[in-house]
Design goal:
The chain is an alpha+beta fold and about 500 residues long. It has 16 helices and 17 strands. The protein folds into two domains: about 260 residues, NADH Oxidase (3-Layer(aba) Sandwich); about 190 residues, NADH Oxidase.
């Protein structure tokens, strides 16, 4: 079964999930020094659409207030409805299993240390005193970006909090849900004029040791160095001591879903030499020839017509749509959403070509016939275009492919982010599976933000893997679905 849905069946019926089984949504440490956040009102600028999918090259250090805003608008609690706390980014099942940690030197307002971000208390909890950035740099084989970053955010996954409902598919959700958080974070960092890079080459067990976590139950996923300083971090004088901070709620130590931890172990890097070899092999590939769009050009909204809502206000108002009206969206809005979503990500590896390829099922878009299209990406203007695969009314099929969820049929458009896993694994080894899932999720996360900035709704949906690939036909031969984002007009 792996991480795929068997066609027509939702996971393993021998492992039913009941609402009473819902796990705790927070990792709560006991008796640690804390730094409370002072967020204040959402900033009125810059606009969300100016920040989504772009990067800053400013090399400076964030202060505490900047770091607070980045963490809050990436993974903090942004609203409470009928007693439920909703966070800044979408998460499968609202189970919120992704954790963020901060490893920093001394910055304005915050002492050097290793901290856990506590969204419930809106605070940082200190796990280690002192500057331990060189431990991360060593784990990433001397990565210069990590070494010179005043702050690095570490993403982890307490995967059993998701696997209790989604079983082995929870490993995909490790990257789907960290990817939507990362999409917010990268946009926030751009809006605050900071440099950011996504680092995927590191020794998993060494990162876990620094954080004081069990790598069999809480999986290190990604490092995100923020900002840059001229002087690199200095190596600590003494050996890094082991820590085991007290927190609740812990598992009883029994791995209910060993497949998840096994897949993660198989995609792990075990020492700095293996990290160096992986990065060198990944970055030695050429980028391929320039391309032009030969299909229907997609023209985005002109700058003068772009909504000006700020990124922070868009994030505060964001929420996955629960129903769509079947009303159409405009073609230029779809084009703008795709333009902001389908962007390269600054990483420690260079892609031979984009890992995510995009296909859409159009149900209701003004001036565009219903049907199935491939989104073409060009290195020249116009940047995006559409290649028609087949025309027709496919609402019922779209709903079926989305695991028989009405949202798929009612949406104006279903966006499938796909990847050639065979080529990705050939280029990046087993760790390429993580890259493919994460990149698609970041793109979908940018699509989420762009949709809400443009005044339409969006939601992520699960899907029947094999049936989607069969339906898309020969043009998607060899591609596997990574993420499905449904976009439409919310039903009032």
């Amino acid at each position: 079964m792996g991480t795929q849905h068997p066609d027509g069946v939702l996971l393993d019926s021998r492992r039913p999930y009941l609402p009473s089984m819902r796990p705790a949504l927070y990792k709560e440490y006991k008796d640690l020094p804390s730094v409370a956040f002072q967020i204040g009102a959402a900033a009125g600028e810059p606009s969300a659409l100016a920040a989504i999918g772009s990067f800053s090259d400013e090399e400076r250090a964030p202060d505490l207030n900047t770091l607070e805003r980045i963490l809050h608008y990436s993974a903090g609690i942004t609203k409470k409805i009928r007693g439920y706390a909703f966070r800044a980014a979408a998460c499968t099942g609202a189970l919120y299993h992704i954790e963020l940690y901060v490893v920093c030197g001394k910055i304005s307002g915050l002492d050097a240390g290793v901290y856990h971000f506590d969204p419930k208390g809106s605070q940082l909890l200190r796990l280690r005193e002192g500057d331990h950035r060189t431990a991360l740099a060593e784990a990433s084989a001397g990565n210069e970006t990590v070494l010179h970053a005043p702050v690095t955010i570490v993403y982890t996954d307490v995967y059993w909090r998701n696997a209790i409902k989604y079983q082995a598919r929870a490993y995909r959700h490790s990257f789907w849900d960290s990817g939507t958080i990362l999409a917010n974070m990268l946009a926030m960092v751009k809006s605050l004029s900071l440099r950011a890079t996504v680092v995927m080459g590191f020794v998993d067990k060494d990162v876990a040791y620094l954080l004081g976590i069990d790598p069999m139950e809480e999986l290190p996923l990604a490092l995100v160095p923020l900002g840059a300083e001229a002087a690199p971090a200095q190596k600590a004088g003494s050996k890094l001591a082991e820590i085991d901070p007290d927190w609740e709620p812990k598992t009883n130590g029994r791995l209910e879903f060993p497949m998840v931890s096994r897949i993660h172990q198989e995609t792990s890097l075990t020492n700095p030499d293996s990290v160096s070899a992986w990065v060198q092999a990944s970055t030695s590939k050429s980028e391929g020839p320039k391309t032009q769009v030969n299909g229907l050009p997609l023209n985005t909204l002109p700058d003068s017509a772009l909504p000006k809502d700020s990124l922070e206000r868009v994030i505060e108002g964001r929420g996955s749509s629960r129903a769509f009206s079947r009303d159409p969206i405009t073609l230029d809005r779809l084009a703008t959403l795709l333009d902001r979503s389908i962007r390269p990500i600054r990483t420690d590896y260079r892609r031979l070509k984009a890992l995510a390829q995009t296909y859409i099922i159009v149900n209701a878009v003004e001036s565009l016939a219903p049907g199935v299209y491939q989104v073409l990406v060009s290195s020249e203007e116009p940047r995006l275009g559409l290649h028609r695969i087949r025309l027709g009314e496919f609402r019922s099929r779209a709903a079926h492919l989305a695991l028989n969820q009405a949202l798929g049929g009612d949406a104006a458009v279903n966006i499938y982010y796909m990847s050639d896993l065979v080529e990705t694994l050939r280029t990046y080894g087993e760790r390429g599976y993580r890259l493919a899932q994460l990149e698609a999720a970041v793109m979908a996360g940018w699509g989420y933000l762009a949709a809400y900035a443009l005044g339409v709704g969006a939601t992520g949906l699960t899907f029947l893997d094999g049936l989607v690939e069969d339906f898309l036909g020969d043009s998607a031969d060899g591609l596997k679905v990574m993420f499905l984002l449904a976009v439409g007009v919310p039903r009032k």
